[in-house]
């Protein structure tokens, strides 16, 4: 008995030869005739596939009805892809004007800190919360929660304001968001 983990154990060359001859006799007894394409398939399957494809292409070219069923490709016209011109630029500025009236939320962040719930519950009127930001340090200007600039506080006629001192580049924004 052979080990199922080693299927080739105990099989000799004679066993393989007998199995192959049995397979050949079974194939011959079905009545299938051996053609040149089948003998080529036994020798080189790629050559047989190429010969089969050539035969199919020849039969397709002989039948005009088969070629009429397949759609013929045609170049894309101007109605599919509009040509680029000066009128496209005018359309883009019009689109930009449409978004100019969309409101955004501007926030100036003085600083941040972390508190425990116990510290939060202990807060009362007059409590002082220490922030991470230093005095005189530029403050973050956020648009819809995204850092876009930094600035300094100014007072104009009894009202606070902020003077933009630096516009943040996209790479700097990512760096500052990670802190």
From TrEMBL:
Q: Where is the composition biased (Low complexity)?
A: 27-39, 62-71
Q: Name its cellular compartments.
A: Cell membrane; Bacterial flagellum basal body
Task: Please give the residue ranges the record annotates as the region Disordered.
Answer: 1-82
Entry keywords, A to Z = Bacterial flagellum, Cell membrane, Cell projection, Chemotaxis, Cilium, Flagellar rotation, Flagellum, Membrane
Looking up Gene3D superfamilies in the UniProt record yields:
SpoA-like
Query: Can you give the residue ranges of the Flagellar motor switch protein FliN-like C-terminal domain?
Result: 98-168
Q: What is this protein called?
A: Flagellar motor switch protein FliN
Could you confirm whether the keyword Membrane appears in this record?
yes
Q: Which InterPro entries match?
A: FliN, FliN-like_C, FliN/MopA/SpaO, FliN_T3SS_HrcQb, SpoA-like_sf
- Give the membrane topology: Peripheral membrane protein
Cell membrane keyword on record: yes
What family does this chain come from, according to its entry?
Belongs to the FliN/MopA/SpaO family.
Q: What does it do?
A: FliN is one of three proteins (FliG, FliN, FliM) that form the rotor-mounted switch complex (C ring), located at the base of the basal body. This complex interacts with the CheY and CheZ chemotaxis proteins, in addition to contacting components of the motor that determine the direction of flagellar rotation.
């Amino acid at each position: 008995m052979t080990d199922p983990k080693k299927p080739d154990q105990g099989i000799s060359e004679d066993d393989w030869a007998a199995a192959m001859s049995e397979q050949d006799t079974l194939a011959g007894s079905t009545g299938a005739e051996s053609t040149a394409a089948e003998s080529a398939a036994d020798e080189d399957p790629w050559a047989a596939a190429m010969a089969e494809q050539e035969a199919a292409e020849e039969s397709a070219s002989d039948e005009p009805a088969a070629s009429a069923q397949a759609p013929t490709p045609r170049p894309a016209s101007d109605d599919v892809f509009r040509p680029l011109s000066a009128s496209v630029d005018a359309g883009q500025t019009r689109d930009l004007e449409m978004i100019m009236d969309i409101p955004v939320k501007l926030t100036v962040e003085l600083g941040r800190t972390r508190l425990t719930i116990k510290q939060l519950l202990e807060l009362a009127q007059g409590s002082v919360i220490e922030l991470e930001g230093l005095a005189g340090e530029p403050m973050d200007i956020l648009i819809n929660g995204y850092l876009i600039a930094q600035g300094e506080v100014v007072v104009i006629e009894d009202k606070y304001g902020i003077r933009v001192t630096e516009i943040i580049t996209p790479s700097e924004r990512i760096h500052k968001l990670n802190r």
